[in-house]
């Protein structure tokens, strides 16, 4: 293809030859009519080059526009998928678990756990308030460096108003003794303060109303280390839907506090094979507890 600059030079040369009838390079002499024809051909060629260039530019612009549109559509689709995923998590764990701040914010107004308990112990925000025998708040040292969190009270806890007092609680006491601690030296609480009927898993609405109370307890106690007992407790504290097996054997953090996940004592009673894994978890907890408190 002839460049625009070469075509322009040739046109000018042919025009001069047409006017003067002079000899071109190579000794060839052509008449004015032929010069005119060649000149017109070059002009057409030059115009075609320009149009081709414009077409190429337009094609590039269209391609860029299509690429931008595809990218925009892809971003929108990804945003919709993320939103849908968050909605699924929220429908299972409740809005607090996905980061929406709810709750009474009473911890900031309470100087002690006793004061906090007095403010929430008559709670009737969910149906469990009408079926409970006793409100199960928590037990242990109000200044504990190590805090254990379970999921909900069972039958014995509901009758006595204290967490982990049944067979699972007795096993927890033995676990504490194995790492040279007692119930009075740690703090123990649950996600729910009232027993779910039949010891079923906590429902999203129940956790939505009750989980903020646990957050307020943690804020008052200010533990240096948290041990989550069971899947539901860990999922709530870590804002995740991961299974228990994928949360164990690693350190997590709840609002900057180191957190370790292990089996719920009731699970150990149902499946003794889990005891070895729990003991390994507790050895790690013990070592970190000593490091943080030494």
Please provide a brief summary of the model.
This protein is an alpha/beta fold and 294 residues long.
What is the fold named in CATH at topology level of the largest domain? Uracil-DNA Glycosylase, subunit E
Structural class: alpha/beta
Oligomer: single chain
Q: Total strand count, please?
A: 6
Shape: globular
Largest sheet: 6 strands, mixed
Total helical segments: 11
Write up this protein:
This protein has 294 residues and is of the alpha/beta class. It folds into two domains: 4-70; 106-293, Uracil-DNA glycosylase-like domain (Uracil-DNA Glycosylase, subunit E, 3-Layer(aba) Sandwich). Helices cover 56% and strands 9% of the residues. It is built from eleven helices and six strands. The protein has helices at 4-20, 32-93, 113-120, 128-131, 155-160, 167-178, 204-221, 231-238, 244-247, 265-270, 275-293; strands at 138-140, 146-150, 187-190, 225-229, 252-254, 257-262. Strands 1-3-2-4-6-5 form a six-stranded mixed beta sheet, with helices on both faces. Strand 5 and strand 6 form a beta hairpin. Helix 1 runs antiparallel to helix 2. The longest helix has 62 residues, at 32-93. It is globular, with a radius of gyration of 39 Å. It starts with a helix and ends with a helix. The model is unreliable at 17-32 and 75-104 (pLDDT under 50).
Structural features:
11 helices; 6 strands; alpha/beta; 294 residues; Uracil-DNA Glycosylase, subunit E
Write the layout of secondary structure elements.
Layout (H helix, E strand, L loop, with lengths): L3 H17 L11 H62 L19 H8 L7 H4 L6 E3 L5 E5 L4 H6 L6 H12 L8 E4 L13 H18 L3 E5 L1 H8 L5 H4 L4 E3 L2 E6 L2 H6 L4 H19 L1
Parallel strand pairs: 2-3, 2-4, 4-6
Antiparallel strand pairs: 1-3, 5-6
Helix pairs in contact: 1-2, 2-7
């Amino acid at each position: 293809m002839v460049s625009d600059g070469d075509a322009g030079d040739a046109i000018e040369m042919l025009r001069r030859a047409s006017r003067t009838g002079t000899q071109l390079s190579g000794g060839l002499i052509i008449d004015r009519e032929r010069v005119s024809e060649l000149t017109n051909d070059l002009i057409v060629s030059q115009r075609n080059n320009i149009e081709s260039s414009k077409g190429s530019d337009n094609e590039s612009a269209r391609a860029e526009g299509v690429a931008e549109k595809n990218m925009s559509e892809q971003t929108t689709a990804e945003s919709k998928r993320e939103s849908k995923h968050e909605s699924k998590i929220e429908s299972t764990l409740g809005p607090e678990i996905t980061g929406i701040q709810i709750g009474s914010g009473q911890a900031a107004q309470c100087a002690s756990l006793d004061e906090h308990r007095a403010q929430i112990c008559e709670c009737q925000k969910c149906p469990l308030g009408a079926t409970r025998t006793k409100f199960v708040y928590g037990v242990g040292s109000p200044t504990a460096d190590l805090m254990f969190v379970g999921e909900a009270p069972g039958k014995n806890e509901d009758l006595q108003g204290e967490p982990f007092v049944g067979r699972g609680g007795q096993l927890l006491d033995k676990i504490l003794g194995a790492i040279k601690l007692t119930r009075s030296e740690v703090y123990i609480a649950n996600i729910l303060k009232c027993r779910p009927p039949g010891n079923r898993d906590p429902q999203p609405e129940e956790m939505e109303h009750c989980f903020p109370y646990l957050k307020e307890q943690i804020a008052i106690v200010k533990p240096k280390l948290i041990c989550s007992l069971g899947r539901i407790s860990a999922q709530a504290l870590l804002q995740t839907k991961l299974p228990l097996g994928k949360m164990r054997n690693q350190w997590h953090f709840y609002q900057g506090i180191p957190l370790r996940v292990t089996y719920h004592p009731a699970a150990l009673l149902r499946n003794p094979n889990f005891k070895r894994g729990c003991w390994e978890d507790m050895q790690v907890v013990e070592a970190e507890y000593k490091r943080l408190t030494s």
